[in-house]
Design a protein that fits this description.
The complex is a heterodimer. By secondary structure, chain A is mainly β. Chain A is about 0% helix and about 50% strand. Chain A contains no helices and eleven strands. The relative contact order of chain A is 0.31. Chain B is mostly beta strands. Chain B is built from no helices and eleven strands. In chain B, strands 2, 4, 5, 6, 9, 10 and 11 form a seven-stranded mixed β-sheet that branches. A four-stranded antiparallel β-sheet of chain B has the order 1-3-8-7, with no helix packed on it. Classes of the chains: A mainly beta, B mainly beta.
Chain lengths: ~120, ~110
């Protein structure tokens, strides 16, 4: 069965960096586009970034462009999110999610999330 | 960017009730519309994709309809496990992929 397990969250000071990881299993990771989606405490879902199955294409929400970098290592079945210059408004639970195989931009399986808190 | 607007933002209903949630897109998105259910402290779960197709394992009391800019999620005969927050999401174009603000379904 599909399993996505995020790690790397924690408390970090504003302006600092953090790297999130998402370990995938139960499906052929290298065949699927992957997303990061976040949810601030008590708020709704906000899409952050997507990476194509081979890593050749990456897209971001405007609020993280130039600060966050999505990447993947298909040999390790792992998705990453490098977060630099963190701000208080980046505080959220970060979920990784895989796309459906027949419809793009439709995350069908999600990890349990990892909490990132940006605070001094 | 395509804006997604859900209504209502919350509702109270009883077990056995029929519940309808609406989602409106700021431009036509054909049937590129997905619905998710999220329970407190849990990850979102895909319920319906392409406006009306049930994800595998989702009970048939859930249904979706609509095309263009107006969509609905209907739950016939609400069950205790259906109390949750529901989100619509457009998959017509990205970036960015956008979600509605959510509809919280609470127990009356």
């Amino acid at each position: 069965q599909v399993q996505l397990v995020e790690s790397g969250g924690g408390v970090v000071q504003p302006g600092k960096s953090l790297r999130l990881s998402c370990a995938a299993s139960g499906f052929t990771f290298s065949n699927f586009d992957m997303h990061w989606v976040r949810q601030a405490p008590g708020k709704g879902l906000e899409w952050v970034a997507v990476i194509s199955y081979d890593g050749s294409a990456k897209f971001y929400v405007d609020s993280v462009k130039g600060r966050f970098t999505i990447s993947r290592d298909n040999s390790k079945n792992t998705l990453y999110l490098q977060m630099n210059s963190l701000r208080a408004e980046d505080t959220a639970v970060y979920y990784c999610a895989k796309d459906r195989d027949d419809i793009q931009l439709c995350p069908d399986y999600w990890g349990q999330g990892t909490l990132v808190t940006v605070s001094s | 960017d395509i804006q997604m607007t859900q209504s209502p933002s919350s509702l109270s209903a009883s077990v056995g009730d029929r519940v309808t949630i609406t989602c409106r897109a700021s431009q036509s998105i054909s049937t590129f519309l997905n619905w998710y259910q999220q329970k407190p402290g849990k990850a979102p779960k895909l319920l319906i994709y392409a406006a009306s197709t049930l994800q595998g394992g989702v009970p048939s009391r859930f249904s979706g309809s609509g095309s263009g800019t107006d969509f609905t999620l209907t739950i016939t005969s609400l069950q205790p496990e259906d109390f949750a927050t529901y989100y619509c999401q457009q998959s017509y174009e990205s970036p960015p992929l956008t979600f509605g603000g959510g509809t919280k379904v609470e127990i009356k």
